[in-house]
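Workshop exercise sheet. Pairs work together: one partner reads the sequence aloud, the other fills in the structure field after running the prediction. Swap roles for the next sheet.
Pair: D.N. / O.F.
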Amino acid sequence: MKKPLLLLALWASIFTYQTARANGGTSCATAVSASAGTNTSTHTGISDDQWFIYTPSSTCFLTISSGGLTTVGTSFAVYADCGHLDIPLYTSSQCGNNTPYQSIKTIQITSLTPIFIKWINHGSAVSYNWTINESALPPGSTSATALTPNEGINTPNYHYGNLVDLWYVFSPNVDGVFTITKKSGTTSLFTGNIYKDPDLTNSLASFNQTSGYQSQIKANGKYYIKFNKTSDDNYDWNLSFQAQTLSGYECSSPIVATLGSNTVKYYQTNQWFSYQPIIDGVMTVSTVGLTSEDTWEEIYDDCIATTPLSSNDNSGEYIAQSSITMNVVKDKPYLIKWRKDFTTASYPFNISVRPYYTGT
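Structure field:
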């Protein structure tokens, strides 16, 4: 008779373990590991929210749902960790049209990054099943799976209800200018950022459906275009590229400026000029009185210098234009950098040089 008793005890211990594992912890600190597939929450009806922790096996869409699994009303919240419980990362949405509502949420999640799921107690003793399911992200959801855009119309863009960014990578084989605009007639709203490989953290510029983007770019460089997940779904956009020799794109290839009037072309990038005075004297480089653009200039000795000889953003109170006056040496080249930070269009600037005053 000992064997049946031993088997009964073993079965009881297994059943007890499975039952305990099926329920969540009573706090974030005691969260129980959830598994892909079906899990169970049991509430006593006092104030026992049920806490679970889940670590995804891949970077993916993750769907958490009680839909179709119970007839009781449910809701949950998702947190990044136990130290920030004041504001959840996500809260559940209504599932179905019949009350009491079940709950569902699909999120984008990063491989091996745990999340904490709190199934909320609604004041009654209930037990219900719920599921976790992972599904693959669509191509273009990350920079690693960036799509290749068409020169022309690209259609359509989907963010799956503000779930994922949409990445493209553009790499021309010649120098030139590329432009992003919305397709004519498009009413959808979108925003985005431009990055240059390998720095995919600090954007070169931002754009939206109104402003678009235009920039000089180098041959064989990788330029990433990220449409943000906060954008609308289902919109078209246009990419155009015009091959041309770059000038002023970087310090090593500045545009040669002349005495008098010059023009900074609007490319949403900084633009470099060089000027070599023919006399010793005092040089003034200014946009004051020439434009309504908010300009910012810096003058450098050479391309190695990290600190400018002089810099000016606003030349006076309530004046958004810039002006620099400084002593210069004959035949020495000076590098003028017009920063892109606050400008929205092309604008002129003037260079003048006068001799040193020698009068008493």
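Discussion prompt: Confidence is low (pLDDT under 50) at residues 1-21. What would you look at next?
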